[in-house]
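chain below, 489 aa
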Amino acid sequence: MEGSGEKRPITASFQSAEEHHDLCNRKLSLLGRFPKRNVVGIMAFLGFCNIYALRANLSIAIVAMVAKYNVTNESRTLIEPGFDWTPRQQGLILGAFFYGYIFTQIPGGFLANRFGGKFLFGGGVFITAVLTILTPFCAQQNIALLVTVRVLEGLCEGVTYPSIHAIWAKWAPPMEKTRLAAFAFSGSYIGTVLAMLISGGLFSAGYNWQSIFYLFGSFGVLWFVSWCFLIAESPAKHSTITDAELDYIQSSIGYTDEQTQNILPPWFDILRSPALWAIVAAHFAENWGFYTWLTELPSFMKYALNFDLQNAGYLTALPYFVMGLVVMSCGFLADFLLAHVQISVVAVRKMFTCGAFLSQMVFMVAAGYVMTPVAAVVCLTIAVGLGGFAWGGFSVNHLDIAPQYASILMGISNTFATIPGIVSPGLTGVIVSDQHDKGEWQVVFYLAAGIYLAGCVIFGLFASGHRQAWAEVPTGYMSQVDENSRDDL
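prediction:
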């Protein structure tokens, strides 16, 4: 039977999440309906593909945008025309995105919590896509206008990560939230790989650098139109959801958006919660290692190992691809452990996050001691890939401890997690001299390993898997199913 689109109350509870899940799936199978929550997951995945393609396009295109010169002791001959930007100006252009991105994380989380995540997430992608289409025009005017556009893109994309958790808080049942959220997040890395491959294909086919911005901007606009038509703010507002799926989602979560939308966030309790700061520490640590790899591997390979990546560009995309697959699969593994092995939520979150960090420490340090480029790529690719398991831990933990405020918590943690993208490259530049001594690179990798260890210890000590007292919904709205997420160490 089709849903009518009207608000419908929570119905019967079930003896266990497994029985509830199996019964719901049998009903849906008989009805031959594809679950709408899975549609949300697929569209969110494609949304994150767009988010990272729109973020990375300039990093790819700038290689073709900048003028090339043959410099000798006596002359400077133009080889390929383009913008005459200095390395410092290029760094300003590429870093401008993050200066906007860091400022809208917490406001984005608050707005998504108050007004819903659908149009905030979709609007963030859409406006960024439009600005991307305008980027070639802005670049041809002056560098100040280009920097301004990149800052605006960062401001718009800054609301996307927090707002997606506002959507999962209403759409993701406790026994499925890890796989849905992790699958969506994996789009970030798959989107980066696709951006690299498609951009390389455009250049090989003879298209100019402007085509990158027009193509990915158009993809973003088309995705936004589909998102608006296919996705509803909550299951109760979806016009074609089945009653079986609606009942399953609402009774599993234990509340509806109407019951919590007017409750003001308990800011003081949120900010003094050890469980939140455990997530912040883990998010910061994972991004520090990731950005160290992302920004410094080409220099390490070229100068420390005397290996030029120009003819092996696929190596640049390899870690993104591996991490995307790991993030995608770890969500299914985490939910399997929760549902069938009866491991507690907090144990799964700590096992995935701390296990990933400890493994990354080993391979990050090993990369500083290997003597061949292939071994270095293997070590760092494994390190980055294993980081995908951490996304099945800390990145979903916001939904465990305070589902109705998860967007705000994600905004806070991602604000701190953006700092490594700004600080790490500059600090590496201070540590590593022009001689690119291998010992200096070892310091860089030891620093990343130390931050992983700190994140591991803090998350291991203070992370929680149950709904915090300050995040409890009014008495009577909790379902029996949610009790499975209350098991703690």
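The mean pLDDT is 83. The domain at 17-486 is CATH 1.20.1250.20 (Growth Hormone; Chain: A;).
thats it, cya
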